[in-house]
Queue: 4 jobs
Job 1
Amino acid sequence: MTTKDSDMFTALGASSLLASLPPRQGFGDATLIRLAPGAIDLGGGNPATGLLPTELYRDASAAFFSGDDFPRALRYSPAPGLPALRAAIAEREGVEAERVLVTNGGAHGLALVALGTLDRGDVIVVDDPVYPLFLRVLDLVGASVVGVPVGADGLDVDALAARLRAGLRPKALFTVPTFHNPSGGTLSAQKADALVDLAEKYGFTIIADDPYREIAFPGTVVPRRARLRESPQVVSVGTFSKTLGPGLRLGWLVVPPALAEHYVRLRNRLDGQSSAVLQEIVTRILSDARFGPALRTAGEGYAEKAGALVEALRTEFGDDVDVDAPQGGFFAWARLRGDLDFAQLFEAAQDAGVTYQRGEWFSATGERPFRGHARLSFSEPEVHELREGVSRLAQAWRALRAR
Ligand SMILES: Cc1ncc(COP(=O)(O)O)c(C=O)c1O
């Protein structure tokens, strides 16, 4: 911050927290993304609206608003969430309802967990590549970040163990255990056990951020990983954003029993509670027998899109692309070979009418820059748009290589 900036913040009465928040950069920064009319957006994390259970919303809302209980939902409601919704989430998660706290979505849950876990200066280990918006959440508490690689079966637990043996003492560890954002891998049961062993031995909290678990493609079975649910060292963060839509703004935390009451106190000092109206509607959707089949249909739809994207990448780039076929989630993580200026490629691709997220924006600390990587989202565009988007990217790439 320049002296002029700091004078301005003082004059406006801003806190040092507000004044010190770094400018937006990279991922999620609308100023870097240029979406011209007709452009294809392979950058976002939206579900396809056509794969959301809109009919279930309509029926649940109609039943709720026409029922006698509706006016009660306009009153203040309990901070941990409506008991029926907590019970329904608890059943899906395989935990006791007392451990479930309803939030306003995943990002809100992450902010609560950052505030509830970390003090200024604490060390936190994160996935590398990492979900970058979690790094922005860390700006709230001023933690110091260490990256550990993630691969096809999740966090590299051996690399973490080696760092711990060498003296690293984190307060917490952040990982996306299922269909990782951005790289797609899923933590195996064996690695989850080893990770929980390390957390228990060295006394750190595992923050398991799991928004994509229910977006599994046909034939993919997500490992049960019981100890991630049972260990008092784990806090997990859930959201309905990928299954019921991010516009809903509802999610949940699963916290250890001893911390539940403390999280309620924290929540009571912030916004107090989530919308009871929306919680009533979601409770009805979860108990609708059509919800399970709707999730399976969504998984099939996303699998088809992922297949089309990966096939287009392989057709257009041949041996010049490395990409694993996703097993679930919303993204493919591709690495383009070649000695080119990938910042220039990003600009050229946008000129050609396609955008995506650059690999370097997912680097935990800048140490591993993910040069040539791109996170390509297949969830929202139609199959023909995915093909056209990849063809535009390839055009830009070929033109740059020919220079
Ligand atoms: C890994 C990860 N965590 C958290 C979130 C935030 O979810 P929400 O939209 O519910 O805030 C997302 C959304 O894309 C995500 O990909």
Job 2
Amino acid sequence: MAIVRGEGIKVWDPEGRSYTDLYGGHAVTVLGHSHPALVEAITEQSRKLIFYSNAVYSDVRARACKRLVEAAPGKLKKVFMCNSGTEANETALKMARKYTGKNGIVAMKEGFHGRTVASLSVTGIDRYRNQFAPLLEGTRFAEFGNMDSVRDAVDGNTAAVILEPVQSMAGMRTAPPEFFGELREYCVEKDILLIFDEIQTGFGRMGKMFAAQYYNVTPDMITCAKGIAGGFPAGAVLLTDEMGETIAMGEHGSTFGGGPLACAAMEATLKTIRLDGLLARVKDLGDHIQQLFNTVDRVKEVRGVGLLRGFKFDIPAKEVQKGLMEKGFIVGTAVSEPDVIRIMPPLITAKDDIDEFYRSMEKLLTEMN
Ligand SMILES: Cc1ncc(COP(=O)(O)O)c(C=O)c1O
């Protein structure tokens, strides 16, 4: 499939056929495609300065950092800017090693954190890991949502626990809300850092800027990418002042991280989420999805939170995905469960769009009977 144009939640192929993009351009386009605020910010910045590295001060970077820190849970006041999710996770893992002097990481089975070596080492999906062994030593895996399993995995060498607050690639798996509070307390007690990979859960998809706020827990680091700049490549790590001080100038860096265009896109994205009241919409829309799709006979389970949703079917997800595509809807499948469809639509999605999707899915499932 080729996509040549996008606007709002629609995209078009070269023949002019339109699709409703419930996959959000791969969980990225929180504002929808080519949102005017984003187009304007990138255009205006490109006229002023396309690039200079972070070796110099940049006003647009300072504004983007300020907005990011204002959106983050209270203690996370420092930002490291990079270009992608995996780079944000690599940074957080390096920081954890430096800060604690230990190299063990506890990650979750079926969790996904990226494709470079450290991120892959803490990714709990065998299909992605196996061909690249040996990966980094010292990684141990626990069951997501299970504190006993986390306690078993932790040892004297554990520097940090890393997890996705909702395991998206695995099939939109959630953990009991109390798991996060217990995990936070346990990490404090054991002097272990807690890292939330919010590359998918961040920037409004759960009705809060971050899942950390949804679960009312402040981790020591949050890694961000995907929605952070509405589709312009960017990533960031949010950390406490204390964590930020562990690393001296020059010990870690990135040429393109925090570049002017990425920061202009980030500033516009964060501003638009706030000004347009998009967070409040997500909760209502999420509740609507839950109610509506719970009534679909062949949907065995509606998963996830807000606009990060999974539907478990009694038929292979690939068939449903193909049928939906023919009806003009783009959705994703999951890596760990072949019968789960995932959607992560833009925050601007309307109730009518969801209703239309529901009707098309009902029709498709009747045709497939
Ligand atoms: C939860 C999570 N972490 C990390 C990554 C890696 O991000 P990137 O592809 O930007 O490196 C992804 C990408 O899908 C992701 O979903």
Job 3
Amino acid sequence: MTDTTQNNIDLFDLSGKISVVTGAGRGIGKAVALRLARAGSDVALVARSQNELDSVAQEIQNLDRQAETFPADLTQINQLPSLIDAIDRKMGGIDILVNNAGINIPQDSVDVTEEAWDAVMGINLKAAFFMAQAVGKVMISRGRGGRIINMTSQTGSIALIKRAVYCASKAGLNLITKVLALEWCSYGILVNAVAPTFIETELSKDFLSDPEFRAYALSKNLLKKFGTTDDVAAAVLYLASPSGNIVTGHVLLVDAGWTAH
Ligand SMILES: NC(=O)c1ccc[n+]([C@@H]2O[C@H](COP(=O)([O-])OP(=O)(O)OC[C@H]3O[C@@H](n4cnc5c(N)ncnc54)[C@H](OP(=O)(O)O)[C@@H]3O)[C@@H](O)[C@H]2O)c1
């Protein structure tokens, strides 16, 4: 049996790898991009806001890693193949995709509009699938395997009020994760999801600043604290790195125990 500690193998090393992180301009995506870069990966950063991407790119370049920005609205599905082609050519391949970009529009189910449904599903589920498809094609044709990590949520496993569409988008992406793992295992492409509890970011700041909602959320949470973006990034690194070599089709809950009861 191989003792990896004696062989001095760094089980979290991503040297020589090329990652694509969507929603990389702020919040969880920014923390993921920085974590992967600190582990040795070069990173392609995707979101709509160029100024936010530029600032993350600068932080990564300060770590002596390559960082390139690719501003794009990922809901423009027909433009995804050319986006991925541009990333593949500029970076020299793609080893890791972190499908993180997402939105939430909390609404009672009686108030949900078709526009809100399409907006949430469009980025959280449809864009995530077609990004995985475009990157999967590159990984299959290059023949060096890869990792795809989808950012879902604890709400892919449990119900929360005002989140019928969001819950459906994340539950759908959890199951797409498993289907892609099944279809692409023979190419050495491992597909997993990370499913966080509430993390204090731009996306959650409105509802987490409501004292009643905050108290409710903490009452459900075994550790009585929200996660940080770094807590989520650590889970992504595990699944992206040699540590996760035989993990595929898994949904890794990073939920402070919310779903344990
Ligand atoms: N925060 C939480 O409590 C929490 C909990 C569980 C799961 N999550 C999931 O974690 C992911 C990141 O959330 P976050 O809290 O970090 O949110 P955030 O701070 O609002 O960041 C979202 C990122 O996604 C990008 N994005 C949104 N729509 C896009 C589009 N159409 N095309 C390209 N990029 C787009 C945003 O950039 P632009 O606006 O510049 O495009 C931004 O970089 C989401 O999938 C979310 O559902 C969050």
Job 4
Amino acid sequence: MWSSANTVSKLRKLSAHVLVCNHITCLRRGGKASAKTLKRALKDRDLSAQVLVTKVKCLDQCGRGPVMVVYPDGVWYGGVDEETARAIVREHLEEGHAVEKRVLHDMRDGEKK
Ligand code: FES
């Protein structure tokens, strides 16, 4: 078997996956602090086991960073400061609606902002 039961069990708990840009421009715009705040907020709200956070290279929206993308919804966020990171956890990941003021693109409806 190529994966352990423990690994599969962890995957089944996931409800969302957040990609966090960890590349030059987003880091210069405060991305490191935003990512740290996102993880802290997930932990504070007991969502760490349900939301996987992965740091990635450039998401090709450098001028609009820090950039984060929430899947499976496919909602792209720009200008994610620490306040927005907390709002993403509270409003999007916990309550289920996007933080509209920071949405760059919502793949669910194809709307471009
Ligand atoms: S450096 Fe973050 S989108 Fe390019």
